[in-house]
Target: MFS transporter
Amino acid sequence: MNAHAPTGSSSSTQLPTASTVLQELPFKWNVQGRIFIIGGLGFMFDAWDVSLNSILIPLLRTEWGLETGEAAWIGTANLIGMAVGAFLWGTIADRLGRKAAFSWTLGIFAVFTVAGALTDSLGWFVFFRFLAGIGLGGAVPVDYALVGEFTPRKQRGIILTAMDGWWPIGAALAGVVSAWLMAMFGDWRYPLLVMVLPALLIMFVRLFIPESPMYLLKQGRDQEARKVIDDMVARTGAEARPYRTDMAAAQQEPFTPLAFVHQLVALWRFSPKITAVSWLLFLTIMTMYYIGLQWMPTFLIEAGYEQQRAFLTSAGMAGVGFLGVVIAAVLVERTGRKAVLAIFAPASGVLLVVLAMLLSAKNPAVLWLVLAYGTVVQIAIPVLYAYVSEMYPTALRGSGFGWASTISRVGAGFGPLLFVTALVPMLGLVGAFWTVTAVVSAAALVMLFFAPETKGQQLD
Model:
């Protein structure tokens, strides 16, 4: 039964909106859960590819005789590409659709990651990592907009937080599979060749994920939106009821390069406070995370650990992050988003400081501190992703998340480079991590005073 109602009738104003019906559906694993799984697998491969940087840096330093600054560009180029991709694909998702943008991001980072395995030149390798990063940068903002807009309001905080559970899985697989391939073949190219797999996921996106009805409504494509919503009502077993589709459609503009500028201006017009807080949180927390992610194997090797053990320890750091995601999913709807971020983001930095104080191959506490950091930082990050995606309306959700992610990628690209080439030589590893912790703590304090709580709110 199609629960249509004339949008112009006087009684229609008493009906629930299409977005209300969508967000009040029961959660079913064969409906919304399928979108969560397919989107999550894309996120998993994103994490896998990003985590390859920490594997490639020590391997290529040895293979090509690179200095520390040269090796740092392997990760920096990838993250700068992600900075470009984040606002590029976030804007495309808001203008041209979530589904198409998600498919393209998967294909681009798979193709150029594999291309990196075909070169013996640092220049070309860095260039391919940059291009792969452009695809990677769009995966997270587009993924969160897509999954969030299909998820019922009551479960949205948990589901969006649980999305980040795919990240430690992908990051851990990167370490474990790379260690196994290096032990089997001893060639750095094999870990890159595995990344042909994300391209195969595009088929499942096209077959099993519809376009977001909230996006369609915002574009004035009411009939297409109704078709998706009515199908979801039937498949979830919910009671069919009349609803109205009078969501204010976004003004249709030609999609030109100026669209990226227009979306950026619209973000600041919508709320300078929300946009500033979003950028600040992403910049500080994600820079701290990528310093640990990219350089932990190198720190461990320099402290006296064998290469394979350093890789596996770093994989363990990523793997236990799944526990952090579970804790975040439990807390996010109980304490709210702001409390989790204010506590666990600074705590992650403190753990890095203690780790630096005790860093030695002979100190058994080092392994436990690496695992503790991996757990605690992954309590903060999924809540950050859920929080920022909830603060923006549908017309700005992809680009709002995307631009915040862009700012973070710039910081995460140059931050680790400056950390190892400037802060560590000047302050030592302990002092450098204290500096990072202080900046993260300041960002959390700004959030507490200037950003809203989004717990339990319905998406626009």
About this structure: The chain has one domain: 14-249+256-450.
